Amino acid sequence: MMDVLTNNWPIVLVVLVVLAIIAVVLLRPRQRVTLTDQTPTRPHMARQAAAEGRGLAGEAAAATSDVTSEILEVPAYRSDAGEAGEPADDFTRMKGVGPKLADSLTELGFSRFEQLAALTPTEMERLDERLGAFKGRLTRDRIVEQADYLARNDVDGYEQTFGKL
Predict the structure, then answer these.
(1) How far apart are CA 11 and CA 7, in angstroms?
(2) What does residue 137 show for φ and ψ, rounded to 5 degrees?
(3) Which residues of 46-80 are buried (b: 16+ CB within 10 A; e: fewer)?
(4) Rounded-to-integer distance, Cα 74 and Cα 85, Å
(5) In this structure, is the dihedral angle defined by the CA atoms of residues 120, 122, 127 and 133, taken in order, positive or negative?
(6) Cys-Cys link to 141, which of 96, 122, 152, 161 (CB 3.0-4.6 A)?
(7) For 93-133, how does the pLDDT look when each residue is reduced to its tens digit (9 = 90+)?
(8) Where are the alpha helices (DSSP H) in 85-132?
C-alpha cells in the first residue's frame, strides 16, 4: 500500500485538492432572502416597463396608418374623428386641469374626453413625457379616470369619486 502511495503521490494530491474544492462549493453557506409585505421595495424593483404588446408588425401597421391618414387628410382612429363643427370638450372641468394644461393637451391633439379616457398605460407614459412642466399630472390627478366619467356624461359618478364639478 505504501508503494502505491509513494509511486502515485502527485495523483493522490490532485484528487485530494479536487475533493476539497468540491466540498467547499457544495457545503458553503448560501444566502437566503425572504421578501415579506413589510420589506421595503427598492426603486429598481418597483419599476416595471409596461409591455405594449403590439410587436414590430403592429408598430409598422400603426405607423403606416398614421402616414396614410395624413396624406389623405382623414382621421386614422375613431378617437381622432369628431363630428364636423362639434366644439372641443372643456378639459378645465376636470380637477387639477387648468387652462395651461388644457392648452397643452389640445396642442398634443386631444379635444374630447373620449380620447383621454381611451389612453392605455403605455400611451399615458408617452403623453406624460411630452407634457413638460405638467409631467406626472395624468397619474397624480387621475385625469384619465376623470375623463372617462365625463366622456360617459356620468356626472353623479364623477362627483361621488372626485367631488363637485
Answers:
(1) 9
(2) -70, -30
(3) eeeeeeeeeeeeeeeeeeeeeeeeeeeeeebeebe
(4) 15
(5) positive
(6) 96
(7) 999 999 999 999 999 889 999 999 999 999 999 999 899 88
(8) 99-107, 113-117, 121-130
